[in-house]
Amino acid sequence: QTCALIVGGGHAGSEAAVSLRQNGFAGRILIISDEPGLPYQRPPLSKAFLAGTLGAEALPIRPAAAYEKANIEIRNGASVSSLDLEGRSVQLADGSSLGWSHLILATGSRARRLQVVGLGERQPDNLHYLRSQADAERLREQWVEGQRLVIVGGGYIGLEVAAAAKKAGLQVTVLEAQPRVLARVTAPEVSSFYEQVHRAAGIELRLNTQLEQVSLDASGQMVEAMVTTDGARIPLDLVLVGVGAIANTELAEQAGLEVDNGIVVDNCSRTGAAGVYAIGDCSNHPSALYGCRLRLESIPNAIEQARAAASAITGKPTPYVALPWFWSDQYDLKLQIAGINQGYDQVVLRGSKALRSFVAFYLRAGRLIAADCINRQPEFMAIKKLVQAGFAGDSELLADESVNLKDLTA
Ligand code: FAD
């Protein structure tokens, strides 16, 4: 019997299952998920769900009926422990095994753990990571007005949580080791804008700040304070660690698949092994647009790679060529990012930081490679097209607000 077995019930796994059926796959489709419940959206976990404006009922990507209608089976609370590529089966943690004709690895990524003196392998009750709905629910239990929250890491997740916490009346301190927030992903102009916004909201932002040690209470179950290398001791009630994610590639590695910053796939999500695919956060694909390999952690990427796998499996290979994009919500600011700014040598600004509405265009050798758009929803489609097309015209046109960006794509 043909069976598409999908390891991981996240955004990529869910999309792959539905796409397979839409593409006419007639065999069994089975998702193995080590989490409870239906595949759900993670982005709101650090945004509206945490802020309490979006309930748990709104998190599933699609309703149960959509899987039933498409005859997609989901096995919850089950974990795949090893892969047998030759024998075309997987072993589950409960000792059982399942056969497949097509295997899709959609194992995602996990939160990087904090490594600091005083913590070791301990999991204090008031120290949080944010990857799953369960993590967010646990954090919300301690989400009480007036509590002192220390956030380790000034990346997207740290800053989104900071904004949500401030709204809920917590006292927030963000510790960032780099000289600026969002240092890995944006230009200094964009970082400084976000720093100003957070500080104006009342967040204490400590840049260039590294942790020396975590100070635990006598029981060893609660963090009392963070001690930084500059000698400061920051007392706290709860901690959120947002220091990046690690791809879940161990299964693939153990099975002998090529792994290099993610499971290596081609632009149709195929690994080097016949019938085996990898999609979403756990995979690393070639980007024709950027001429390099990318491992992306974003919903649009998970969806596009899932669709590419489904089309390849159903004999209609359609390579993934869509422009990578991403978003982040903080306060009233909607950040939308088109493309990857890696290697940029010029930044062109359009709009007004003071009016909280601007674009940072990133160019490399005169060619547009990416853009960060802050509250520019109406222009975002045109900007994506410009980036996709690799606009290489006069960069002053990008800065000139009297120029309609749609006209530049023509
Ligand atoms: P995941 O969603 O990680 O799903 C993988 C699933 O596989 C998990 O359920 C995992 O437990 C399971 N699994 C792993 N190993 C096994 C195994 N051996 N057996 C069974 N199951 C297994 N992206 C955006 O584009 N915009 C945003 O604003 C944004 N915000 C985010 C906010 C937060 C708090 C987080 C955590 C992520 C955010 N992301 C955002 C990233 C986005 O959620 C991920 O890129 C996306 O979820 C990747 O989907 P995936 O299916 O590849 O992996």
TrEMBL record:
<dbReference type="InterPro" id="IPR023753">
    <property type="entry name" value="FAD/NAD-binding_dom"/>
</dbReference>
<keyword id="KW-0560">Oxidoreductase</keyword>
<dbReference type="InterPro" id="IPR050446">
    <property type="entry name" value="FAD-oxidoreductase/Apoptosis"/>
</dbReference>
<dbReference type="Pfam" id="PF14759">
    <property type="entry name" value="Reductase_C"/>
</dbReference>
<dbReference type="InterPro" id="IPR036188">
    <property type="entry name" value="FAD/NAD-bd_sf"/>
</dbReference>
<dbReference type="InterPro" id="IPR016156">
    <property type="entry name" value="FAD/NAD-linked_Rdtase_dimer_sf"/>
</dbReference>
<protein>
    <submittedName>
        <fullName>FAD-dependent oxidoreductase</fullName>
    </submittedName>
</protein>
<dbReference type="GO" id="GO:0016651">
    <property type="term" value="F:oxidoreductase activity, acting on NAD(P)H"/>
</dbReference>
<dbReference type="InterPro" id="IPR028202">
    <property type="entry name" value="Reductase_C"/>
</dbReference>
<feature type="domain" description="FAD/NAD(P)-binding">
    <location>
        <begin position="5"/>
        <end position="306"/>
    </location>
</feature>
<dbReference type="GO" id="GO:0005737">
    <property type="term" value="C:cytoplasm"/>
</dbReference>
<dbReference type="Pfam" id="PF07992">
    <property type="entry name" value="Pyr_redox_2"/>
</dbReference>
<keyword id="KW-0285">Flavoprotein</keyword>
<keyword id="KW-0274">FAD</keyword>
<feature type="domain" description="Reductase C-terminal">
    <location>
        <begin position="325"/>
        <end position="408"/>
    </location>
</feature>
